[in-house]
Each structure stands twice: as C-alpha cells, then as structure tokens.
Design goal:
By secondary structure, this protein is of the alpha/beta class. It folds into three domains: about 90 residues, Rossmann fold (3-Layer(aba) Sandwich); about 180 residues, Mur-like, catalytic domain (UDP-N-acetylmuramoyl-L-alanine:D-glutamate ligase, 3-Layer(aba) Sandwich), CATH 3.40.1190; about 140 residues, Mur ligase, C-terminal domain (Protein-Tyrosine Phosphatase, Chain A, Alpha-Beta Complex), CATH 3.90.190. Strand 2, helix 2 and strand 3 form a beta-alpha-beta unit. Helix 5 packs across helix 8 and helix 5 crosses helix 9.
C-alpha cells in the first residue's frame, strides 16, 4: 500500500474529474503531493475550482490530455465508458487504469476512517459529521459528494487523525474501503442496474457493517440485524419539533437545535452526532457544534427568488423517498404552494420506480416533469422509457393537480415563469443538470 510520503512521486490523471467525488479525491491527492490532472465532458464551476487549486483540467475528452509521463496512473469515474479516448490511449500505452474505489481505498488506509453509507442522506450526514469534527478542533480529512458551505469545499485532508468519507453502494465500492466506524442512514433499493433485489443489496450492507470496529445504525430490527452480534450504536430522533428551515430534537437527554429543515435531516444529524462521539468528541460539544451546520450544496439549497418572488430551492433528490422528504421539508416553510420540478436520473430507475415517483411528486401542488438525464445509460437500451411515465403516474396520483410534461428546459422555463407566484416554493429536483434551470429562474440570488 502506498504511504502518505510516497504521493509526491505520483502522477494521477482523472477521467471524469468533474464528478463531486472524483473532484474531491483529485484535490486531496494534490494536497498529499501528487501531480494531478484530469478531464470532464464539459467545463463547469467544479473544474474552475480545481484550476484555482493548481490542478490542470480539460473540458472535453482527448487522448492528448494524458500526461506524457509513462508512470502516469489513470483514475476513471464510474460514469466513463470503456471507449473513452483517454482510456483507450491509456490501455494502448500500458498505463495502469484504476477504478475510483481503488484510490479511495488507498486514502482510507492512511487515516482512521468513518464511512457513511445509505440510499439517502450520505452526503448530508457526512457533511454534518465533518462540520462537528471541524468545530470541535479535530481538523479531520473529508471526502463528500457536495460542497460543505462552511468551507466552500467538498474535500480536504486536514491534519487530524480522522477521515470522513461517503461509502457508495451503487457499484459495491463501499466494500473496498478501510473503515473503523461504519454509519448507515437507511437501506433501500435504488440502483436497479446493479442489484436484482433488496435481499441482494442487504447482503452488501451486511458485509459493509460487519467488519468495522464500530457501527452506527438506525434503531430498526431489520437494520440492526445486519450487524449481527457485534457492538452497535442504535440511533433515533427523540421529541422532534419541525420549524421553518430547521428543527429541535432530543439526543441523549440533550436538546439540539438544527438549522436545516426536514425530519430526514434530524435523523441524519443524530447519526452524525453518534459518530462524533465515537471519534472522541464530548456530547455537549457535539450538540453545540452541529448547530453551526448551514447545509451542503444541492441539498435544500436556497438559490434565490424568481421574478415573481417565488423561493427557488435546489435539491439533489433523485429517488421517491428523497423527493417525499424534500417536499415535506418545503411544507414547513411559509409558502402557500409547493411547485416541484423533477428531472429523472437514469432510465433503469425511471422504468422501475415510475409509480413511486408519481406518488411522491403528487404531494406537491404543481408538478413539472422533465426528460430523463441519461448519465451512464442510453435511451436506445430502454425503449419507451422517458419522463412521461412519471408525469402520467403523478397525474394519476394527484387527484386533479396540475402536472406538466415538459421535456426541454426552454419549455419548462417558459411555463414556470408564467405559473410561479410570490408565495410559492419551487423545488428543483434531480441528480442531473437541472440546477441550471433553477439558476436561470433566479432573479434575486440568495445570500446563502
């Protein structure tokens, strides 16, 4: 295993560096002394941030982007296909090509690692935990899927002994990590191209939680069972009071105030607090520190207001459970109507969960469904699958509520400008590029 002192001799090239996880790992590799470069399909603020850190990045993929150094190691994102010109060139030159999980496994071997897993809440829980450890003076490393608002970054190496990471079940890469504390937020089938059943997914989580010295798991018999007879911290939220943009709840006999909304975030916070105790933080200090958490990018992030005065909120929600939680959080605000704009992510997920998406979206007052963001899948492999499946399901479940099927951003923008009111909350939902639609709607950016 490569030690921390050896990184200065390494040349790493990231293919798909613009992904939230990949950009963080690239930044940390550079912090450790490696020479880092990379490319992504299009330019973005993420690439701009990497350039500011001195990392050479390219917009677009080309064999010419590969460094000429023969010792170059290529790290590929899971979204990058085998026919990518940089991967093809790397194989022709005999350069080692590693999956992203291999690099993350190296990083977790260098620090005492707390890994957060779950179908929902990984990024928020990891961010909360990182924030608590930072506020309490532990200066942790962290690698998370969204930008921590307090630092403006999604990754840092820090000087402390702990590393906080997200553990991804989508490709089973969570099993490659070196973990001392495992945190599970929930277990729900999401990645249908990877798992044939919930039972198969549960076995992967069983492997994940059975090996670390400690585990933090929701107080649910079916989830605690995954840990077997090994020691476990079972967590739950006590005496929850939801408020606009926040909540108050009891944790281990202490009242905690949280400044991000929704019952789901209260649960995420308790998981983060329990993990912080295992990292050596005092209970009182942890409870106070989490009050400073102001959120993470693309998680109920208030972008600003539209020309009509509607509050525009961006959220990464791309699963029915996440959409339901986000709409419920929006109901705690003072707005009279909730307008949900959803961009489905992946054809396989759309095909399998169209009815569930429809029921979740029907909790909003007005629903707008865009077309599917392809990501790593192609529509030709899923004939007849598009956003209309979800729009139809939302109309069936909505009991007469207005549901719009508007596959193109331009059409959606025009219709939303006609419909949004000053007392609306407009949720921009999805894991693709739908945030840009929300940003276009904003006339008055939020100070947050």
């Amino acid at each position: 295993m490569t030690g921390a002192a050896d990184w200065s001799s390494r040349q790493l090239h990231f293919v798909g560096i613009g992904g939230a996880g990949m950009s963080g790992w690239a930044a940390v590799a550079a912090e450790l002394g490696a020479t880092v470069s990379g490319s992504d399909a299009v330019d973005s603020p993420t690439l701009a941030a990497l350039r500011e850190q001195g990392i050479k990045v390219y917009a677009g993929h080309s064999a010419s982007h590969l460094p000429s150094i023969e010792a170059t190691e290529v790290v590929r994102s899971s979204a990058i296909s085998d026919i990518n010109p940089e991967l093809v060139a790397a194989r022709e030159r005999g350069l080692p090509v590693m999956e992203r999980a291999e690099l993350l496994a190296e990083l977790t071997a260098l620090r005492r690692t707390i890994a957060v897993a779950g179908a929902h809440g990984k990024t928020t829980t990891s961010s909360m935990l990182a924030q608590v450890l930072i506020e309490c003076g532990l200066d942790p490393g962290y690698l998370i899927g969204g930008e921590l608002r307090s630092s403006g970054r999604n990754a840092a190496w820090g000087s402390g002994e702990w590393l906080v990471v997200e553990a991804d079940e989508s490709d089973r890469s969570m099993l490659a990590l070196n973990v001392e504390v495992a945190v599970v937020t929930n277990v729900e089938l999401d990645h249908h191209a990877s798992y044939r059943s919930l039972a198969e997914l549960r076995e992967v989580f069983r492997s994940f939680v059975s090996r670390p010295a400690a585990a933090v798991i929701p107080n649910s018999p079916e989830l605690l069972e995954l840990r077997g007879d090994r020691p476990v911290v079972a967590f739950e939220v006590g005496s929850l009071e939801l408020r606009p943009n926040g909540s108050q709840f009891d944790w281990r006999g202490q009242q905690v105030t949280l400044n991000v909304g929704g019952a789901h975030n209260a649960s995420n916070a308790v998981a983060a607090l329990e993990a912080a105790l295992l990292a050596g933080v005092e209970q009182h200090d942890a409870a106070l520190a989490i009050g400073s958490f102001s959120g993470v990018g693309r998680r109920f992030e208030q972008l600003g207001r539209s020309e009509a005065g509607a509050l525009i909120i961006d959220d990464y929600a791309h699963h029915p459970t996440e959409i339901a939680a986000t709409i419920a959080a929006a109901r705690t605000l003072s707005s009279k109507r909730v307008v949900a704009v959803f961009q489905p992510h992946l054809y396989s997920r759309t095909e399998r969960l169209a009815s569930e998406f429809g029921r979740a979206l029907a909790a909003a007052d007005v629903v707008c469904v865009l077309d599917v963001y392809e990501a790593r899948e192609k529509q030709v492999d899923f004939p007849g699958v598009d956003g209309r499946l979800i729009a139809a399901a939302a109309a069936d479940a909505g009991g007469g509520k207005e549901v719009l099927w508007l596959p193109e951003f331009g059409d959606a923008l025009a219709q939303l400008k006609l419909r949004l009111r000053a007392d609306d909350s407009c949720l921009i939902l999805g894991a693709g590029d739908v945030r840009s639609l929300g940003e276009t709607l904003v006339a008055e950016p939020s100070s947050r």
